[in-house]
Structure formats: C-alpha cells, structure tokens
Design brief:
By secondary structure, the protein is of the alpha/beta class. The protein has 25 helices and 19 strands. The chain is globular.
Length: about 750
C-alpha cells in the first residue's frame, strides 16, 4: 500500500474524501439480528437462508488459518531465498521475479486453473547494497540482512533512483529540515546533504530531493522526525528507517537512515569528522523492467463476467502487513474455495499484483503500476463485476473492522451485513458505516477502467504513523482474529456477488455525490445554468433508482426460484441479471471516466477541488484587502488560505524554493504528463490548478502586510486566478451535464 502525502494540512481533505455514508440495509434474510444499536455488526455463525448460505458455510469450514499465516511469514521473512537486500522486493527486480515464480508455483499446487505470470512494463528498480562510513568516527553502516536490520547497523535504504556508481567520498552537511531556509549560508555543492524529513506533516520525499538538487548536492541522506504527537511516519521508534515512493525523476542518489543512525552522523559532524563515503548500489532504469502480476482462477459456468480477489506482493523490509498478509489471504481464500468444492457462476480470479508501491519514474502517480498494466495492457477490467482488494488485513486494529467501498457499492456493503452471511472471529466487530476508498491502492486503477470494488478499511490506525514502511511492519503487529475476519469476508463476499444474478451497483449514489458536491452559489457566479445542472442530477438519480429496483426485483425473484428449485426460472433470471449488469457497469465506467478527479490522496466526483480553490482564493483576497497575512485563528489570514490552494500543493512554495514549488505544481498538471506521453492512471483525472505560485511564495514568507512589495498587484494575481477558475467551473459543469444525460440514457 502506498501512502501519499498525508499531512496535518490534509486533515480537512480526509474529512471530505473519507466521509462516512450511513448504510441502510436492503433486504436480506437473516433470522438473527446481528447489527447492534451502536452501529456495529458481529456474528458467530451463518444465519442466512439465502441460496448461497450453504456454500458460504462450506467455505468457512475449509478456511485454513495456519496456511494463511505460513504463507504470510514466508513472503515476509524469506529474504535470502528471494534475494532481497534489506527486504526490498521492488518493481522489476530479481527479488520480485523470484517471488512471482514462487506464487505461480503455489497457485498451481492449490489447483487453480490458467495460472500465469502476466508481465507488464515498468521502470526497473534494483537495490543491491549500501554503506555509509565517516572518517575518524564510529559511523560505519553496512549490510542488509535481517540480522543487520534488527541490530540497526544496516546500510542506508535507497529510494527509487540511481545509486552513487561506486564510492562517493564527500563532505556531509547537516541541512536541518531540508527547506529552502535551511540551505542559507551553507555550501552543499557536490556534497552529501543530511536532512530531517517529515513526510507526514511537511512534504513528500520528492520535494526534499529537488530542493537538495537545486542547491547542488551530490546526494541526499534523510532521517524521519519523531514527533511528540505521534504524527508523521516511522514513529515506532528511533531505530526505524522509513521509506516511500519518490514521485520524481532520477534526480540524485537518495537514501534513508534511522534517527539513531542520524544522531551518530550528527555527532561525528559536530566533532569535526565530516568526510563521508557513501555507496549506494542501486539502479533505476526507465522502461527497462517487467513486473509480473500472478493470476489463477476458479472457472465459472459463465466466462463473460469475472470477480477478482487481490493484493500486492512487492514490499519494503518485511512488509508483513503491507502486503504479505494480503497475499496470504488471497492464497488462503483460493485454497478454501477449492477445498469447499465451490462451483462459481462466474470466473473468480485470484491476483497477486506486482509494482504497487512504485513502478514509474517521474510520475505523480507512480504507484499501482502492475495493476495499471493489468487493466490497460491486458484488459483485466473487461467483464469484471467486482474487485475485492486487501491491504494490511491482519494488523492488530485499535478500532473495529471496516469495509471501504466506491460509493456505488455502499448498498452492497449494507446487504452483506443484513444478509446474515458474514461471520466474524473472536471479539471482532464491523463498523456498519462504510468509508469511501481513495487512491491508496490497486483498486483505483481498476475503478478508472470501470470495475467497482471494496477494500478492507485500515485508515486512522496508528500503524500508519508507527510501523508503516519500516522494519517494524513485522509479525508483532499480527492479530489472528482480524485476519480470519478478513478472510471470511473475502470468500463470503465473492460467493454472495457471484451467486446473485444482478450486481447491486447503485448509480444513484453517483448522482448523490454530484449533488452534494455542487456549490450552487459558485456555479451561478460562474454562469452555470444551475437549474439545468440539478435537473440532470435528478434525472440521473431517478434512472439509477429505477435500475436499482429492477436489480432488486431480479435478485428477489432469483432467490424465490432457488427456494423452489426452479432451475429454468433461475437460468432466465441469470440472463436478465447479466443484461442489467451491462447497463450498470457501463454507467459506472462512464461515471469514473468523466467525473473522477484525483489528487495525491483524494478521489472526488465533479469539480470539488475547483470549488475549494474558489473559497480559498476568496480568503486570500479578503485577507490581503484587510491587511492580515496571518490571523489569530490560524484560518482567515491571506497566508493561512494561500498555502492550502490546489489541494495543499501550494504549500511547497511556503517551505521550498520557487524552483521546487514550480516543479511540484507542474507534476500535478495534466499537461506535464501529456507532454511526456505518459498516459498512466490518474493523469487525465487531474483538477484545474490555479497559477499563483509566485505570489504565494512571497505571501507566505511575509510576516505582516508591510512585507509585501505590491499588495494591489498581488490581489490582482489571486483575482485573475479566481476568474480563470470560474471559467473552468463553467466549462466543467457544462460537460458534466452532457455526461450525466448520456449516463442516464445508458441506464434507461
């Protein structure tokens, strides 16, 4: 799982994108009420009388938890067998290829059909070795075995860029937090910059890399801040080294060390020992790699539709939760389905994705590369009625289990609770409120290509700040009841969706999101015909609800026919359901093709980011007009609003140089990737940026209004940006009306 730029400045965005939709159950046949007044669900047994109840129970009876854990541990700890230096199993690497061979062999042993390693192109990242030594000091970090890592003596952990091409002997310079101001008065030309990074609260690693490069550094060494409030990354201890994907080009050799190691380096520098020899044996070779998605299936009676159960097998360190446990789950689910004798109606695929953590250099969307190859190059999304994806499925949760989903599957999540099919393990409970998925895992690439999906919910857990992407993502984080509950969910959900003839895919939920995110006041100012817009939303909502009624009727009739053993009617209803699925899936695909907008973290429909920019621009202009840069409330000053522009991308201008700020803004623009001919996932789902970087650079460095050279000129910059954004909203709204009408016609 790749976690992108989750900062304290994105809390507001988290509230927006992870907003909880209250679930309303849609029928079901449970004889025993398992939902509670506090909005949670738990069940110790199957209580359903639905047609698939016996198959679900047989699946539960066949689940082999020992096998699931055994596979997870093998994938996490077999560094020597797979040739993993420091546990790296990266895009296109020898280690990834060896693991793919193992997974294919395991699927063959399980008796899956059509087992295959499906190759897709990626940028190769091969990390072989590393060391750091400082003359005259005790700093001598080297080695990448499990023993080295556990002892904290391992070499620096390379990011996905080329290494040093042998020994780099140069002065190492303490560059503080790596912001522009930290380089003032320091000569780092041709030297090694040591930087304290906070990728949870300040910037992603690419910002630090570009800033170091701008000042002439030959290499960058980073270590993570340990924050009193526990925010940030790598907070599990000072001995942990945290790494991420780079979302940048092949800039300069860059690697991370632990906070403990950094203190030893800083002590050496303080004592006058600053001649360092850094060796990072790593290769990043664009377009030179192949990542393998390992697939196998249980064939269905019908091959026109498919269901996918998936996770990813690339990792850093042990990656016990992220994502070895998910692969253990995928294999265990396949094993239980096979051994239970389940005969599916549709093909059920079990997919182990490669290159999820990183796979494409110089991209804003460099993660889920293997999955993108599956849908873009190998048409895996075609006929896929549902994907059930997993990340961190065995972590010792502080909260209840959750099922996150695309909004159109919220009703389906409600159904599984209401149906009396889902069994929880131990004292585990589910929250019945379904959070919305974002951009953080392989599901986003399938969604873009028209596959609706669900995901085990894991947001908000301390694991993300503490253990994530460190060597402490290990077996100590394991909770068997959480793991079994998720394995139960994988099989029960797949069987439930597979058995129903018509997929409960609620396009009315798409209309609901568009309506809730539509700001009529801003739209009117932009010249949008708001009555026409809302009428289009209403028509789409009605068409979605009408189709929902047909879906529900088809499924109800099927269950009635199954109870009577009327196979002829069941077969007829399956044909009817398939036709309904064609409509709903075509509509869902168009919804996501036309309406989906993504940032580093968020996934919205419509033009929500543009509306947010208008409100922030109003705040900047008002603050400047009243002469207030920073307000006491921390919210209403011109500077308070400016850094939040462009979904907080503008913050880069506040802490870094203009050059780095411009690069970060460019990297979020569709034009940047179009010029590079890099039509990767996400690039055509970007929102309209405001061009205010130069003004924000000056504004956010001002302590008072008197520090601004020309206030009127600055106000005009933000006003011009506001006008341009209103024009974009008018254009987007008109297109959205056209698209809503087209989707409505699909549904009729």
């Amino acid at each position: 799982m790749t976690k992108k730029k989750w900062s304290r400045f994105l809390v507001a965005l988290l509230v927006l994108t992870m907003s909880v939709w209250t679930l309303a159950g849609c029928g079901g046949s449970g004889e025993e009420e398992t939902a509670t007044d506090d909005g949670t669900y738990s069940a110790s047994e199957v209580t359903s009388d639905m047609s698939m109840a016996e198959e679900v129970q047989a699946y539960y009876d066949a689940v082999d938890m020992d096998y699931a854990l055994k596979q997870t541990k093998k994938l996490a700890y077999s560094w020597e067998e797979f040739g993993e230096y420091m546990g790296w199993r990266s895009a296109g690497s020898d280690a990834e290829h060896k693991c793919a061979d193992y997974l294919a062999g395991e699927m063959e042993k399980l008796g899956l059909d059509d087992v295959e390693k499906v190759g897709t192109s990626c940028d190769l990242f091969q990390f072989n070795n590393s060391s750091l030594k400082i003359e005259g000091s005790k700093v001598d970090f080297k080695g990448g075995t499990i023993e080295d890592v556990e002892a904290g003596t391992n070499g620096p952990a390379s990011y996905q860029v080329d290494g040093t091409d042998g020994d780099l002997t140069a002065e190492i310079v303490d560059c503080g937090t790596g912001f522009e101001a930290d380089y003032e008065g320091k000569d780092v030309e041709g030297k090694i910059a040591l930087v304290l990074v906070d990728q949870g609260n300040e910037s992603w690693i690419d910002g630090y890399m570009y800033e170091a490069k701008n000042h002439g550094a030959a290499a960058l060494l980073t270590y993570s801040a340990i924050n009193e409030d526990g925010s940030g990354y790598g907070q599990a201890g000072t001995d942990t080294t945290n790494v991420q994907d780079v979302c940048a080009g092949n800039i300069i050799p860059s690697a991370a060390i632990s906070n403990d190691q950094a203190q030893k380096v800083l002590k050496a520098i303080k004592n006058g020992h600053n001649t360092a020899t850094l060796n990072i044996d790593a290769v990043m070779d664009e377009d030179a790699g192949t990542t393998y998605n390992v697939i196998g299936k249980i064939p269905g009676k019908n091959h026109d539709q498919k269901i996918i159960v998936s996770g990813h097998y690339d990792k850093y360190w042990y990656g016990f939760q992220d994502d070895c446990a998910a692969i253990g789950l995928v294999l265990a689910t396949a094993k239980a389905m096979k051994e239970s004798g389940y005969e599916p109606e549709n093909d059920i695929y079990f997919v182990c994705h490669g290159a999820e953590e990183w796979g494409v250099s110089d991209s804003m969307y460099d993660w889920t590369t293997g999955a993108w190859g599956m849908v873009n190059e190998h048409n895996m999304a075609d006929g896929c009625i549902a994907m059930i994806n997993f990340e961190l499925p065995a972590v010792d949760l502080e909260s209840n289990n959750k099922i996150a989903s695309v909004p159109e599957f919220n009703g389906l999540v409600a159904d599984i609770f209401d149906a009396g099919l889902l069994v929880t393990a131990g004292d585990r409970k589910y929250d019945m409120d379904s959070p919305l998925v974002t951009t953080m895992e392989d599901g986003i690439t399938y969604r873009e290509y028209g596959t609706p999906y669900v995901l085990n919910g894991f947001e908000g857990e301390s694991f993300m700040c503490d253990n994530y992407h460190t060597y402490k993502d290990n077996e100590d984080t394991y909770n068997g009841d959480v793991f079994q509950t998720n394995i139960n969910f994988a099989g029960a959900y797949a069987i439930y969706i597979d058995t129903l003839p018509a997929l409960p895919l609620d396009i009315a939920a798409s209309a609901k999101m568009l309506k809730e995110d539509f700001n009529a006041d801003i739209a009117k100012e932009a010249g949008v015909d708001t009555e026409e817009y809302l009428a289009a939303v209403k028509d789409l909502n009605k068409a979605g609800k009408d189709l929902n009624a047909k879906i529900a009727k088809c499924n109800e009739d099927y269950e009635a026919a199954a109870a009577e053993g009327d196979e002829e009617t069941m077969a007829s209803l399956r044909e009817e359901g398939a036709a309904l699925n064609e409509k709903s899936l075509a509509a869902f695909k168009m919804v996501n093709e036309k309406f989906l907008k993504v940032t580093d973290f968020t996934a919205d429909y419509g033009h929500t980011p543009e509306n947010a920019n208008i409100e922030l621009l109003d705040g900047v202009i008002a603050g400047l007009e009243k002469g207030e840069v920073w307000a006491e409330d921390g919210e209403s000053g011109a500077g308070d609003c400016a850094w939040q522009l462009n979904r907080v991308i503008e913050y880069n201008y506040m802490i870094f140089s203009m050059e780095t700020g411009d690069r970060e803004t460019d990297a979020h623009s569709m034009e940047y990737y179009a010029d590079k001919n890099q039509a990767q996932w996400g690039w055509n789902h970007m929102f309209t940026l405001v061009d205010t970087g130069e003004a924000s650079y000056e504004l956010t460095r001002a302590e008072t209004i008197d520090d601004i050279e020309d206030v009127d000129a600055m106000i005009n910059v933000y006003k011009e940006a506001r006008t341009a954004t209103l024009e974009a909203i008018a254009k987007l709204s008109a297109q959205e009306v056209t698209d809503m009408k087209a989707i409505t016609e699909i549904l009729k």
